[in-house]
Amino acid sequence: MIKKNFILLVTSLAFYSGLYAQNGSSDFSPSDIKITRERDFTGTALYGFMNGGSDLFLEYGFRDLKALEIMYKGIPFTVEVYRMPSPEDAFGIYSQHTFKCIPADSRFYLDCTSVRQFQAAEGNLYISVVFDPASPMAKDFAYLIAKHYTTLYGSGGKPAIPDQIAGLMNPGDEKSLSLKYATGPISLSNINSSLMPLLEELKGYKAWILKGKETGDIILIRFVSSEDFSAFSKGLTSSGEDKPAEILSSGENVILLRMK
Amino acid sequence: MKRRDFFKYLSLGGAGLALNPVVKAAESSPLFAVDDKPATNIKDAIAVPRVKNSMPGLFPGKVVKVVDEKSVIDGVPSPEAAYNMLKESMLRLTGEKNLKKAWRKFVSPKDVVGLKVNPVAGKLLTTSHAVTGAVIKQLEEAGIPRKNIVIWDRREMQLHETGYTQDKYPGITITGTECQDEKGGYYNMEGKLYAEERVDKSQYFFADVAGEYDAYTIPFMVNGGKESYFTKIVTEKVTKIINLPILKNAGRSTTLCMKNLAFGSVSNTGRLHTKLWHETSAYVCAFPPLRDKVVLNIVDGLIGCYDGGPSAVPQFICNYNMLLVGSDPVAVDRIGLDIVTKKRIAEGIQKEEIPSSGRFLELAQELKLGIGDRTKIELIEHNI
Fold it and tell me: What is the rounded end-to-end Cα distance, in angstroms, of chain A?
């Protein structure tokens, strides 16, 4: 029994150390990061970084950005660390950038990788690490660099996904692939624009969207007031045959919809 | 004053202006008459008589699209391919057989030629040096001295970041409106923004929505309030402008010729993105510094993007391998919008064409800046 457990322990250690070496973390040394350029943008100063692209970030309540150009082991990386008001907002802006990004949701609570970019949402941070040219080594380092900067600047916490939405997710569903969060017209219309005419005059709403595969998207909208809730519900029910969604359930200033 | 009130005012008392066919067109257009958009001073632009070079320039409604599938090699735009693509474009646009003659239809050695590039998305998605280099080479071959060429954009620092430096372009002026000193500061000894000296307060786009910016933001906006001042680069420095945008999306629309010009030429733009994006893209181009100086539009579509724009999001960057060229910025934008929309549909970003994404084209057409109706555009396609 002892021998069997020992073999299991040795095998496990070998497996995990192999994984560790594979992603390069055993060689990663933050002191080897050479920052070649460092910029900070606070609030609407984000316009100075990305002009009109800022509006989407500002809709989520963007606080500040640390934009870094670094060299690590001779490879150039562009690191952008966005500090958002809450884990939900960090997830929201992350969820706007996950198209064609292969989700892992393992190394961070939420993370994904595409050809030349690693992205993650961790606590109240959204982080992007771009590497160009792309190489397996650069990809491994990108994750480690992201880990380093989220540790340096981040806060803890996970987005609080409403039960109505979380309860509809299958155990195997990757959050990075299936879940979105919007806080206004720019972010919501990027995900599903069918409801926009009904939301045109309303402000401050929050929407969780579970992307449907065969069936339509499921959307949970939380309104700031009973007046907004009533206005939206009235608009939806009076849409007749053009009704873009069916109501699954509703509560105090909250409505759960299945999109057509 | 709301715009509909303005047009009412025009028809009642502005006899001189009312005779202007553009005003009449605008007055009767539902695009201008029915909305609750903030009032603007578009009347000031319309009131200035047009000149020979005014948009849409020499070839209204004509767009040349040249494709070379080998124009990007290992992720880098090829200078040789860009040169050939541009040459083919210019000859087909003008109908000339001689490249020098083709260029001289637009510029002369006496001109100070401004090349409006777009470096805002950084190194990954800037107007390529291959295309800018090809333009410069052909301008020189057409007799335009390097000292008369200016590479410009709104932010000088972004030009430098993306490789538009004096070292790389010797003899050519590289300049922007917003700028920093060697220590990275935005203010001079008197505490005044350097950029303030670089805007022309006599020429501005007014919109009845005020920009209010904190200390972090003002260096990137130059001023708050309801006026967006034109940069002196377009009002004083250059006599002709060649517009070099990138083939990329901006949300569900595009940021091609008109957006590149409009938002790149004026200050205090933060207030204009949300409510007046389409209006600003069209209206600012209707003011003389742009309307009468932009002679050519060359959309760099060697590398572009179909989502994530105007920023550079790597998974959406693609090789379109093409140039779109025309004197008519509205027609070029129409073709560009169609290309980007088609790509977005193919990639599953959107299901169908969204008519409202081209609203700025309709506004621009109303202002006679070019042709936005695709059925009236002559598209010449050539594959290398």
Answer: 59
